[in-house]
Amino acid sequence: MADLKPKSKMKFITKFILFLTTIFFFDCSPEKEQVLQLNGKTVGTDTKSIILVKPNQDMRFDSLIEIPVKNGKFHFESKLKNSEAVNLFLGEAKENGGGRYMPLFLENENINLTIYAEEEFDKNSVEGGNLNAQYKKFKQNFENKFNDRVKPLQDKISVLFKNDEYNSDKAKVLYAELREAKNQDEKVVIYKKIDDLRKADQHLSPKAKTLEDALKSIYDEQKKFQQEYIENNPTIVAYSFLLNDLIFNKETIAINLAKNAFQILSKANPNHPYNDLASNLINAIENIKVGKKYSDFSAPDLNGNKIKLSDKIKGKVALLDLWATWCGPCIAKSRTMVPLYNEYKDKGFTIVGVAGEFKNTDKLVKFLEKEKWDWLNLVELDRENTIWQKYGVDGGGGGMFLIDKKGIIIAKDPTAEEVRKELESRLN
């Protein structure tokens, strides 16, 4: 091929440089930022919103993700720092205090949802996202393995409920008393008797006990199946299983298996917020029990002064009362302690209350002015010190913990009668 003339050669070089520059800019241009794109439609419901509830959130008080539904469609967009699990509810659940929900996994992907009315939630569909695909596969395997064995037993239990043959005669009497109770103070005493009956395994009829024992055997298999899944697939899907157990099954969870799962999951998901949450929940289950030392904390009084619990109970028998103005059973139980406090406050006994309030303390101030509880009351506003979490009572109004002079927990949720017996033996 003949050589190009100088002028033509110059034009060729210029075009070639422009061509390379164009390619360079295309190659180096930043990729479009990946974000969560949640698109959905509703079928058979006129709900006004979709609610997404994160692990350990309280629907009544916490700030939730609420997505408006307009003309049966909804859209939500967010840049997530971490993938996370949520439970999806219809908006009415907030006013109703709960309802049916669907597990959903959020990540920076496009996710498309079709959401039906509550009674048809089993028809809901989720398309998009690696985690949702993982959960769908796990759920199918789980149901294929266990549903044919569990459902017949559950159906038989439903029949017992319908025919009033589920509870033992002793339990029936207590539930009848509960329905006749005139106030919360009376109910507290009955709830305690029902709880004692359950602990003694005397709350079920013989037929119900046979069915529940058979179910328990299958549930134990389910736990093993889930544990193996967690160990082999330590993703956020598996983490959600552990958190659900720590939050809702704390009384029956095998703590050593939970700790092992936590080690695997936290290592596979470094710096994820779930690590602190799971750690606190495990510590509460393992350590906040009779025979263990109480967990110290600081919280403000109503004047904003930070008070350390250990400074107020050192060398005394103390009742730590975690309560809330919105928790009727908590208030009823706290009232039963007033005579004990008045009788023993100068003999080495004290009570420290912590009110779990939200947004402000206006209701608390008015309540204490009326109730006139003379013991120290601190404030846990919007869970800022995670006290409920550390004491394993998240999701409820609170709990009581009787602590001896050495800081050892000697009773959880004791009645006034049980506290009196301890004070008589330790202080008189």
Question: What does this molecule look like?
Answer:
The protein is an alpha+beta fold and 428 residues long. It folds into 3 domains: 93 residues, Immunoglobulin-like (Sandwich), CATH 2.60.40; 114 residues, no CATH class; 130 residues, Glutaredoxin (3-Layer(aba) Sandwich). It has 15 helices and 15 strands. A 5-stranded mixed sheet has the order 13-12-11-14-15. Helix 7 runs antiparallel to helix 8. The longest helix is centred in the middle third of the chain and has 33 residues. The protein starts with 5 loop residues before the first helix and ends with a helix. About 1% of the residues have low confidence.
In the predicted model, the low-confidence regions spanning at least 5 consecutive residues are 23-27
Specify the number of helices: 15
Q: Looking at CATH, which topology of the largest domain would you report?
A: Glutaredoxin
Mean pLDDT score, rounded?
91
End-to-end Cα distance, whole Å, is 115 Å
CATH class of the largest domain, named: Alpha Beta
Which strand order does the major sheet show? 13-12-11-14-15
Which series of helices and strands comes N to C? Answer: HEEEEEHEEEHHHHHHHEEHEHHEHEHEEH
CATH architecture of the largest domain: 3-Layer(aba) Sandwich
Q: Give me the oligomer status.
A: single chain
Shape: globular
What does this entry show, briefly?
With about 425 residues, the chain is of the alpha+beta class. The chain has 15 helices and 15 strands.
Labels describing this entry:
47% helix; Immunoglobulin-like; 428 residues; alpha+beta; 3 domains; 15 helices; Glutaredoxin; four-stranded mixed β-sheet
